[in-house]
Design a protein that fits this description.
single chain; 211 residues; alpha+beta; Maf protein; 6 helices; 28% helix; binds thymidine-5'-triphosphate; dTTP/UTP pyrophosphatase
């Protein structure tokens, strides 16, 4: 059985973790640390293939639940910390874009996003005291037009290779974003408003009181 590991930011320091984050994403660790949640980290590996005909909103919430359920290693040694997980997808033309498989796939994604709007969906799941709670964040992002040369240069930076939709709002990808309606943290991988609501419902009150 896998053992929980401490986040690189020491987020579960001397006073102990409040939750376990079932994720290998450094972005999710950063975002959780931003709102002061002490956490251990348990990377998980689940099948991220959409079921044929599955709506994107259902897909990201289902995967968030699958990831949280897969983090069983979080539970045993700690006596059962709440487990948080998330999944992010970009949706355009009714297609769900996950992480690019390779350069060609990544450049095709950037070409598809160029000069128009797309949706970014992030599902969040929290399992605490045997209860599964979920939330969904939906944002609309409008890209300016990108030339093929810009997309190729962007790919070569390495930044987009492990990001849904082949860009990072928190990085150079910001250069493409003409407009955002929704949640910056949701696009980045963990919507903090919705996450705080789930934590609150499970009895973890940030700033010391119910939100
Ligand atoms: C759109 C976008 C996505 N992303 C990232 C967030 C996620 O890490 C990733 C989407 O892939 P996910 O499969 O949601 O997550 P992951 O595999 O990176 O991590 P986990 O271990 O939690 O499953 O894309 C950004 O960092 N910035 C962005 O602007």
């Amino acid at each position: 059985m896998a053992t929980p590991i401490t986040g690189p930011d020491g987020a579960n320091g001397a006073s102990g973790a409040q939750i376990c984050l079932a994720s290998g994403s450094p972005r999710r660790r950063e975002l959780l640390a931003q709102i002061g949640v002490r956490h251990s980290v348990q990377p998980v590996d689940v099948d991220e293939t959409p079921v044929p005909g599955e709506a994107a909103a259902d897909f990201v919430v289902r995967l968030a639940i699958d990831k949280a359920r897969a983090a069983r290693g979080c539970q045993a040694p700690t006596g059962g910390l709440p487990v948080l997980a998330a999944d992010t997808a970009v949706v355009v033309d009714g297609m769900i874009l996950g992480k690019p498989r390779d350069r060609d796939d990544g450049l095709a994604m950037l070409g598809r996003l160029s000069g128009r709007s797309h949706q970014v969906l992030t599902g969040v799941a929290l399992i605490a005291d045997g209860l599964e709670r979920t939330a969904l964040s939906t944002s609309r992002v409008r890209f300016r037009r990108l030339s093929a040369a810009e997309a190729a240069t962007y790919w070569a930076t390495g930044e987009p290779a492990d990001k849904a939709g082949c860009y990072a709002i928190q990085g150079l990808g910001a250069l493409f974003i003409a407009e955002l309606a929704g949640s910056y943290s949701g696009v980045m991988g963990l919507p903090l408003f919705e996450t705080a609501e789930l934590l609150d419902a499970a009895g973890i009150h940030l700033l010391g009181s119910a939100v």
